Amino acid sequence: MAAETITLGPLDGVWVYLVQRLADSGELTDEYVLMVDDAYWGRRIQPAQFRPAPFTQEFVMGYRLEGQILHDSQPQEEANVSLEVHLETSEGDEFTFWDSEEFNELVYSLEKATYVTGTTVVAPIQTAADGSWSFIVPRGHGAIYQRPGDYRDDTAETRNQPLPRSVQQILAVYRGRKVPVAEGQPAIINICSGALTIHATAGAYVRVGILDDAGQNYQVPPSGTVQVTGRPVGEHGIVQYRRTGGDWDPSWGCPRVIATVAAGQTTELTMAPLEHYSPEDDLVCGRVYERMGVPAAGIDIVIVDTETAEIVGVAATTNGEGFWSVEMPPEGLGGDLYILDSKWGSIPVVGSPYSDIVLGARAYAAWIEEFKPEAWRTGSYGHHNFQHVEAAVWVRDNDTDDTYPTVAAPYGGWMTEATLPKYAYISDILQLLIYGPQLKSYAIYVDGECEDPDFELRSQSFTETQTPPGQFRAAGYYPERKFLLGGKIKGNLVVASPDRIDEDQPEAARVGLEFGGLQPYLELRQIDADTTGFTDLLCPYCGGPAQRDPGAAVPRGFCLQCAVAFGLPTAMDCRSYSRSVTLSANPDSRHRHCVAAITTNRAFQRAIDYHWRPDLYDETDYFLTQSGPGQPTNAPRWFVKHLDEVADGKGLGQFNGDQSPSFIAGHDLEYFGNLAQIDRDLGLAQFKLAFAPGYVLPMELVVEIDCICSDDSVETVTVTVPQGSSGPTEEQPFGDVVPLSMVPKLAAESKDEPYPGSGLYQAVTDIRLVEPEEAPGCRFTVIADVPFLAHPGGVLVERKKASPFALQLSPPGGHPHIFEDAVGQLFLFDVVERDIRMRRRAGLLAEWDAPRWVTSDGQSDYPWADKDSRGRVILQPTTAIAGRRYRLMVTSLSYPMAFEHNGLLYLIGYRSGAQYLRRSADGGESWLPFSDSEIEKQVGAPSDAQRAAFVKMETQGCRLIVGIPNYPHIDIYVSVDDGESWKLDSQV
Fold first, then answer.
1. Does this model's pTM top 0.70?
2. N or C: which end of the chain has fewer CB within 10 A?
3. Which residues lie closer than 8 Å to 103 by C-beta, 6 or more apart?
4. Residue-by-residue DSSP string for 232-251
5. What's the pLDDT at 639?
6. Which residues are bridge partners to 708 per DSSP?
7. Buried b / exposed e across 60-74, counting CB within 10 Å, b at 16+?
């Protein structure tokens, strides 16, 4: 029937669907289209119109990104390449996510008898022997790398719809360098690729440095030209000078300049001729620079009487070039020359007849890779790289507390924007003369934490060894070690569902997400920032890449590196696991995120607090084991023990039907928070009943449990414990649990404190048996739904570690319903976080009232309401497909909603991003045509894939009213011509 080929390479294992068109009568036709639908590669439908068979289609589900890494124009093999992807939503928001992040290769540890993270850092994208790299990314509708022009199909209707999210720019990143990359636009990064041609005085010396470091020394040959190759892109400071007998010759001037080196280019410059100043003359002069190559204008050169410790006067002031000069009178100046400046400090003028002084430097950067401040080494077992965090690094003056922000240096690393003074200002002249000039002390802060409490700017000596006079002639600083920038948020996400998570998803279950469904490639966005992360791309153990393609030896969603290391394709499950880009660790605030589930159809987004995230990475005997449930290898699993496995094992409380009283008091969450092994804030938890390993409950129980809310009030919960509930076994390693509440976690935390009906508690005070009267052999323990919770205000991102979380997403809600009462009032119901709210409107000329919450149990959906004969609103909260009790299956429309009025049946349903209306006079056997002979009319656009609200009013002109779910709004459309045309009335 059809051949499915991918021009970028065959895509093995992707499902290709044959879609057959239905006629208006419901009969199958002989016209078809083909559809590829894949969670990673996205969705694509071809051809644009249904056509008769046979025909052949070629699907291109991806596009190729490629580039090359060079060092000084030489190819670099096995170079790590990361991708920085800039996304834009249809609402105009911009986000950035990182792909192909660097990770640690696995090495075997004899000490731990397992594989651990080694010191070699690799990335999923690495260069070949010729320095080239290539990576195919998905372009289908809903895919991570979908571009603005990549649509689900080629119909005009589809192309007029905005994309929920699309890629605006992709940057290839290598050692802090970023270059745009796109299909047909290779990214070439050539570091240390520039050159300098310096024309100077033969026999003199030139020193060439990067930023404000000491630099390399070159003697100018007889040709007068010096070639310096392999220079990184950015500013280079150059100074020309002479030596006599190995020391700097102060009779020759030495002006400094700044040259900018561009990638792949040679920067040519001519140094000014050296000026000779004879010691026998009466002229004393010099140059003063703020930093390398930046003249300091308006600096006074003062005369200090060394005997009286007084300032005699001002000998000269620097001009715009930083130059000063003074004629020496026969009787002398009456003292020594100094710079005494409140900003730049107190510095003696060294050198006669010519002096060269650099007052300060821009601090803290280095182009050499080993100095790049992006990584943190963890002994011999790890080398964790973190991408840049904007404004996360700054320098503080230890004397004045002034702070100096930093910016990214063009050759990698960071540098201060401003120049730091090298010397302190000493107002007491006598103290200056006794103790000499004093170096200023600075501290380097990374994410609010001091990394280097005391450093001083260095000197640039013109001799082979550092000499005291040389200390005054230049300044510079760069740290000879790496710094960790920020931390990472990482963990698991599932979509709320009553279904149990089992050993097939151990990475979700390990953090306490025991209920929910897996949805691949969920997106995690940070609120008030432009960062985002995706699930199903990274391994929770080694950080390596998850398999993205179907049909491979390693199943999709499992780690490629762990599969090789442990010799098992399913060694490490990455499904539902996510990691965000690096976050700045701000000690004054906790981080919040917006979770967006971007699918091949539409997106739903929820702004949430990081409420449900236990910090799981405390490696202690009490809280971690190295072999979690469902783990087929001996790799550490970081699975936290539950409360009944900690301390005395009583958990939050126990029930034993063989004892009297049957309740055995346990502890509250404060008790567990005070344990020495816990170093974080504990919040509230949803509770559940757990059973001992190998135990089976002999009968059904109904119990009442008194739970303590956040305000110390008591809420009594009635729980039915099914017969046969059992603890963990070899066949079922997780065992059964019975939750006290099925309220989804996002719905629970959205309620106001003390969270009534949400299942959020801090302790249990009693358990009473309701049925039967006695329960011999019955026992269970109350534990927390998530082993330990962080503070409800969010998680504090810590440096040098990742902050794990567990997050259960609620469905997007919506499901609106609308009805009219006898006096023309409209009542609109919809669902938000599994609770139903109601709005009222006195008539079409009135405004909608503020919403009122109808339910608060977090378990409601698909509302259906009407008024009875006594004028009371009757709400039925769980009708899946409703319409005056009509239940119709319409094959070409999803989520149908029916309504009957004066013998006419109206039907509205969803298809391809919009709602469509039909009418029937014979109960749906056939459909009435509209004025243009079509049997259906589109009502507004776009629409979420949900049921719409619909009513035909008995009053006010018998208008048709439709509520279109279009998150975060419900769009109200009105028709005055029985569905022929529609007008947007309001958004609620």
1. yes
2. N
3. 121, 122, 123, 538, 539, 542, 543, 544, 545, 561
4. PSEEEEEEEE-EETTEE-TT
5. 40
6. 714, 763
7. bbbbebbbbbbbbee
Residue 124 identity: P
Residue 447 DSSP SS3: coil
Number of residues that this document lists for the chain: 988
d(CA 170, CA 65): 9
- Encoding tokens for residue 682? 């504990």
Q: b vs e for 838-855, b when ≥16 Cβ sit within 10 Å of the residue's Cβ?
A: bbbbeebeeebeeeeebb
| pLDDT for the residue numbered 622 | 39
Q: Which residues of the chain have pLDDT under 50?
A: 1-7, 600-640, 787-792, 879-891
The torsion region of residue 842 among left (phi > 0), alpha (psi -120 to 50) and beta comes to alpha
Token pair of 947 as six digits: 């049921």
* In contact, 544 and 538? CB cutoff 8 Å: yes
The span from the CA of 787 to the CA of 801, in Å, is 20
pLDDT for the residue 283? 93
Q: Strand (E) positions, 242-318?
A: 243-244, 247-248, 256-261, 266-270, 283-291, 294-295, 300-305, 310-317
Look at the block and give the residue holding tokens 């919450």. 853
- Give the residues across from 16 on adjacent strands: 36
In the chain, the largest separation of any two C-alpha atoms, in whole Å, equals: 122
Both tokens assigned to 915: 């709602």
Query: Among candidates 352, 200, 222, 329, which has minimal Cα distance to 268?
Result: 200
- Comparing CA positions, the residue from 359, 360, 358, 345 lying closest to residue 437 is 345
Encode pLDDT of 648-660 as tens digits. 778 899 999 998 8
As beta bridge partners, residue 875 has 865
Nearest to 119 by CA among 446, 385, 369: 385
